[in-house]
Amino acid sequence: MEATVVTENSNEGVWSGGGKKPFAASYGKMMMWFFIMSDALTFSGFLVSYGLMRFKFIDSWPIADEVFTHVPFVHGHYPMYYVAFMTFILIFSSVTMVLAVDAGHQMKKGKVTLYMLLTIIGGAIFLGSQAWEWKNFIGGTYGAVVLQDGKIVQFVDNDGHQIALSDFVEKQEGSRVAHTRSNGLWFEKDAGSLPPYTVNEVVASFNANPAVNLRTEKIDLGVKRKTIVSKEEANKFLAKATNVVMGANLQVNEYGKTLFADFFFFITGFHGFHVFSGILINIIIFFNVIIGTYEKRGHYEMVEKVGLYWHFVDLVWVFVFTFFYLV
Amino acid sequence: MAHTEAHEAHEAHESHTGLIWKVFGFLSIITIVEVILGIIKPESLHLTPFLGTSLLNWIFLILTLVKAYGIAWYFMHLRDEKTSLRRAIVWTVVFLICYLTALVLIEGGYMYDKLAPYISWS
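Predict the joint structure of the above. Result:
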């Protein structure tokens, strides 16, 4: 109760939500919990709709281990490592946040400042990592071919490991003529948006190379691996090919179902936006701590409230991590 | 734990630093276990179906919930809140999410059963 009295005396004219504290929680803290609960249900809605689509296409959903395999400065196939690092960063920034709250309870301004700063840095590293993850996903790894009905077919070597188009496709001279402004009524510059190879080049190289096999999206649920088909059957698929795909976006996804890309961008994007706004709020609170706002107010409850939000963002990531990368 | 009283009385705020680092260690260990299981994907767990999904997925789900508990209880200090507030928050969210998840995932399984036969893979 003392704290409330102090607040009202030292902040004349500032509305603090009144002196009544239902459940012994101040107005601000209660409202933060209201917000967190509604946001938790929003995220559950997103993740559950992801679950719905995944269950609907349980036998042809992309396998996360094959999608997120990049580690900075290292070439090769390393699933999970980078996202595990991101998870650690976020958990660690949660720890520094809770240490800031703890120091706030003891009115140690210096410690609160330091821990808030570390929290902000942790959040920024996480956000940068997520941007990098997006960049890899958008840019793609291997490339694939999309069929008339939207199915994706990928290429594997004789051991069943995926291989990139650039590893076996031979460019054919003159198979593609650049469209110029001078000979078109309708002209759009197409540089950059075109896939690196044409369908014909991929099909020709595929048939010329016995070490290349074709894999469909269909998962053998007994062994949880995608189905590799024979050359003849592969050519039946390739006869229906419409486009070469490199990377993923909202329309097409070289790793499989476009829905997977849509959900990935939407859910991790929405979470990333939460992290971003969390960093902004943390920065505001950080400067307030430095100029002594809470020292004057007599308590650091504001740090506690922004801490609740920050931990919530961490909590959501724990679930996003599980549902996008683990299960 | 007697922390609730201590917190309310606004007595000398003893530091919880030790506990915080312990919780961090706990969360880290769970994450490491998850990542190792995710990389190895032991076939005995990964390919054994259990209640609608694989045994491995159930392990991931339970470890995730344990992590969520750690974060909510110690980092968001629900532990130090009044029991009534805690229940108002946790029960509401848990109940609604369980309900939504159960209904929607059952529907997803149904859609798969009905639609999969119409998709040609040859």
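Chain B is about 70% helix and 5% strand.
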